[in-house]
Amino acid sequence: MRILLTGTNGQVGAALQPLLAKHGTVIAPSRAEFDLSKPETLAERLDSLRPDLVINPAAYTAVDRAEDERELAFLVNAKAPEIVAEWAAQHRVPLVHFSTDYVFDGSGDKPWREDSSTNPLSVYGASKLAGDTAIQAAGGPHLIARTSWVYAAKGANFLRTIARLAGERKELRIVADQIGAPTTASAIADAIAGIVLPNASDLNALFVRSGGVVNLVCAGETSWHGFASAIVAGLKSRGAELAAETIVPIATADFPTKAKRPGNSRLDLSRLKDRFGLTTPAWQDALAVELDNFVSLRRTPANS
Ligand SMILES: NC(=O)c1ccc[n+]([C@@H]2O[C@H](COP(=O)([O-])OP(=O)(O)OC[C@H]3O[C@@H](n4cnc5c(N)ncnc54)[C@H](OP(=O)(O)O)[C@@H]3O)[C@@H](O)[C@H]2O)c1
Questions:
Q1: In this structure, are residues 181 and 217 in contact, taking their beta carbons and an 8 Å threshold?
Q2: How are the residues of the chain apportioned to helix, strand and coil, as percentages rounded to the nearest 5?
Q3: pTM (two decimals)
């Protein structure tokens, strides 16, 4: 099987690449070779790459910057997925794509289901939702995995930001009224590989049967404050010498950002279990694994 995998320098793409490579030929073009900001070039690229499966974790993910770069965010997150999905539909090639909790407005306190009403608060969320809608409209076999709060030992993410700040400051002030599930890129990759690889010969039917969208996050919930506290405690228990002594919970209103973020980012995981037979690790267990990776990478800084 020829698998086209985008975004292999990103968190999810990097975690997926080795898992997929065990089972097929992974075509992993660089950004220059498969540039989602140039959607008009993509159909021709796909014609020449001839994948049997497309997995597209590449995205414009700079949530605050997107407020000033609306056009670029929509090109990469909406127009490019539309073109890829149209090509995939025409060729009956299954497409796996990734979406976000930021398609929801964060109201209430119930976990969002795959069919809950969307109402993004930010340009990033709107651009991702437009991508989801375009993929659905293209009508080909697809799976859109909705995830949240993604991090890994490498990359630009909350774990690494907190580790850095905790090394520098005695006190951290972290938002405590946004609730969601921190999710490791490797938990996402394991689940996608667990869906795609055993069903490779029948993916189109599986994707149609499954409804095309599935929530995919680690189990459990916390706030950014809870997540930061667990990171700092986990680093200290692994021998890190940190300046941070207190982590103060603050309100979103006390930490203004350019893009608005949802308060309730809980995602319901029943469909993942019922239609794919999969569960994900508790966010605390996934964090423990990732902290081990992070600490061992720090001991060999050339790798981080
Ligand atoms: N990060 C999160 O917290 C989060 C939360 C919810 C959903 N998601 C979704 O999950 C998916 C994976 O996210 P991630 O965290 O793995 O993202 P990431 O680490 O930010 O990586 C994004 C990847 O997209 C590539 N990319 C950006 N612009 C591109 C372009 N114009 N053409 C081709 N490639 C381009 C980047 O390439 P370069 O390496 O060249 O920059 C990078 O490899 C995305 O769909 C994202 O929207 C992420």
A1: yes
A2: 45, 15, 35
A3: 0.97
Q: Please tell me what DSSP assigns to residue 64.
A: T
CATH code, 2-152+183-218+266-280: 3.40.50.720
122: tokens are: 């930010």
Q: Which residues are catalytic?
A: 124
* pLDDT beyond 70 at 193: yes
Q: What does the alpha-carbon distance between residue 206 and residue 136 come to, in Å, rounded to a whole number?
A: 15
Question: Hey, where are the domains in the chain?
Answer: 2-152+183-218+266-280
Q: What local confidence, expressed as pLDDT, does residue 302 receive?
A: 60
Angle between helix axes 224-237 and 283-299 (nearest 10 degrees) is 50
For a ligand 1 pocket test, name from 17, 61, 75 the mutation site with the most ligand atoms within 8 angstroms of its C-beta.
61
pLDDT tens-digit map of 258-275: 999 999 999 999 999 999
94 lines ligand 1 (CB under 6 A): no
- Does the beta carbon of 51 sit less than 6 angstroms from any atom of ligand 1? no
